Amino acid sequence: MIDHMGILVSNREHSKSFYTAAFAPLGYTLVMDGPWGSGYGVNKPDVWLTDGKPTDHIHLALKAPNRAAVDAFYAAAMAAGGRDNGPPGIRAHYHPNYYGAFVLDPDGHNIEAVCHAPEGA
Known about the structure:
- This protein is of the alpha+beta class.
- It has 2 helices and 9 strands.
């Protein structure tokens, strides 16, 4: 349903360092970059970082191909300066196979990687 989204960030260069590291385990890379923004995706930009004053914190959840990718996302995001908002694990209150990890980005946005597949799938 969603084609792309934008996130206002207070320091784009700092945020690019965070998102480049955090998105790598999920297969997302910086695919466009210019004065209008920095776009991350696989073949086209799905998530845009644009300069501005963040007014609200958002929650962005990205699909991970497996649980190992969720773990790698969390490790990379934390190493890149993210703040823990929920380590990798099952969130059974959503459904029995909901495996997610949550990290706050440099502006306090809640960034999640989630895998809905059973363990080992």
